[in-house]
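notes to self, project folder thing:

trying the whole complex as one job this time. last attempt i did each chain seperately and stitching them together was a nightmare. two parts in total, labels are on each line so i dont mix them up again. if this works i'll redo the older ones the same way
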Amino acid sequence: MTAVTTSVTITHPIGLHARPAVKLTKLAKSFAAEIRLRGSPNGEWVDAKSIVKVMGLKLRTGTVLELEAKGEAAAPALAALQSLVERNFDEAAVGS
Amino acid sequence: MKPRSAAEQTYRGKPASPGLAMGALVRLAAQAQTVAETVESASAEKVRLEGAIGQAKGELSALIAANDAMGADILEFQRELLDDSALAEAAFAAIAGGSGAATAWRRALGEQIAAYESADDDYFRARAGDLADLRDRVIAALTGASGATSEEFPEGTILLADDLTPSRFLAMDWQRLGGAALTAGSRASHVAMLARARGVPLLTGLQGEPVGLAEEAVLDAQDGVLVVSPNAGTRALYAKRIAAAQEQHRRAQAALEQPAVTPAGQRIEVMVNVDDPGAVADEILAASDGVGLMRTEFLFIGRPRLPTEDEQHAAYVRILDRLGGKPVVIRTLDVGGDKPLPGVNLAAETNPFLGLRGIRLCLEKPELFRPQVRALLRAGVNRALRVMLPMIATADELTETRQVFAACLAELRAQGMPAELPPLGIMVETPAAAIAIDLLDAAFYSIGSNDLTQYVMAAARDSGGRVAALNDPGHPAVMRLIKHVVAHGQANARPVSLCGDMASDPALLKRLLATGLKRLSVAPAALGRIKLAIAEADPDHG
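result (full assembly):
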């Protein structure tokens, strides 16, 4: 099974904090694929579905997040996660 | 009367939530830190810990249901942590090695708390408080101690503590308490966020600690001091400041409950924007002139599947009924390729804000749009429903959308279901709609000033520096378009409203009122403030 990878920069001002981490891990859990992420090129890969592990990385704004997924719907899973990060986890004021 | 022996003492701290209070000073005892336990078999200890974690999850779920959106968000973060097997992994390993459940849990959480405390970033350091909260909740479940219960203090009491966990904060009656001073804690903690959201004065990082029993204190969470045993002069000074602050608050509260009228006597309708109806209090809805923009995205995004027609119908009826006959403007789904929808495949776009979004996406995907249209047609029967279409640029889009509504209406009636066509209005957020508003024959217009500004100025507001500065809703290009739309509405007897952040800026508000705009829709939290600003909007200083 080949893995798909992508990377995205965290632009939320306080980084991957509590509410975004809840959103990210919940979204990851909605996919069957195995998804990992890390916050530096030689950093530790952690399970993107574990909020304990994701928060434990203490990822700050400006971090380049690497995402990797394997298995069912791996590509759409990564696209959805990447988009969530790019949208600042929908925390910026909603346009009206 | 017994003379006061204690001299006035002042302690500095960091304001974490602004406000002033004067009252009795009560030191909160720290919650029990040590637990004596007799270790049974490893398997029995494992079952005990699993049971306690399960109980803690149940308690959190109940608290989430009972709290406002912000409290619920914070508690949900804790519940997600508890739900993650990685949290208790080390504890279960220690139990397998012969440890008791409470000792194992305390040690495992202690390590994770220490890891957050050593973070070099305030925000992540503050998460130690959430883990300590979970640690205590599970320990309480293990020892059978009742969790944080509501504690009784005299009216206006100022609490002094090392730190407060979010659970303990949420269990207290802050209507009766004056505020709190913490020797630990930080502005980034969840307790500080809750305090700010509820207007509870809070000082953190208090330097030094009052010893002995002080009877009275002044908490100044504006300037960052706790004055213990204040002398007569200090008390008089703060009594005056507190009275002035209460007066300002009272005026905003009074404005909240009154219809908004300008100094010139013009009645302005002030409605509210609703994202998730569950997060808006009934008092705010009661104080508003209706809902000027109800977004429906919350029903679609972040869900495992799309909402059914019946689920949507129930959600729309609920908000309409909560408003008790006041108008509710529901906007049809407004998303684009940047927001993934469950089960809807969208091609990636290089610029989703200029792509298939809003009404364009809905017209392209009838399977997405039709259940919403049917739900709206059903919800509108005998209710003050208005429906608003986002991202309209051309008259053809309006015509095509009307055809979808007409087809769904005929279908519902053929099925014998009660349905009624609500007035259809449009968001004016594309420059095309604003410039050629005369070509768009809608029942009402609502100017979406955030998007209109972004499209007119070709500048996103989440960009930084030079670009962000261009995203100026007060620029004449934007103001002239607003004026143009308002004038068209007046000449053709079509109501015009504005929903967007610019109404929250008092200077811009005066300019908006000067265009002849008579209806606004604002964030629920801003309602009182904006009504007060309207009452004080002096037209000569616009």
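what i see at first glance: The helical segments of chain A are 18-29, 51-56, 74-86.
need to look closer tmrw
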